[in-house]
Design a protein that fits this description.
Helix content is 37%, strand content 0%. It has 144 residues and is mainly α. It has helices spanning 13-17, 20-26, 38-41, 43-47, 62-65, 67-78, 127-142. The longest helix is centred in the last third of the chain and has 16 residues, at 127-142.
Amino acid sequence: MSGFPDIKSKHSLVAKYVTEPLWNKLSKEETKTSGFTLSKAIACAVQFDNQHCGIYAGDSDSYTVFGEVFDPLIQEYHGISADSKHTSDMDASKIQGNIDPKAPVKSTRIRVGRSIDGFGLSPGITKEQRLGVEDLMKKAFGQP
């Protein structure tokens, strides 16, 4: 994509944060991990008119290379400040809930996102990287 794109999702966060000056600054940049571009990141907002956010990271580098777009967009979407920090706590004993034991759960949905350092995320992963993830998983699952 050479010129400023026609963003069909006019009310999306992409339409708000991908300005022409920012596009001119970042549109030729590519990420190191998977060669992802800003054009690829915002493709759904350009192609479709019904996107709320309208952006996908191709790899972890996307958040740095295109940070001037991702940072304010993520902050607005999640209602967080620029100095917010993500923390992770995998201690299951700290999980608390208010599920009534007399009201059994009929179904549940668990979403798992895969992120492995050095590999692209779903929108930006290359064929070679997919094969590398497959090999890595075969090795991991093959061990006792």
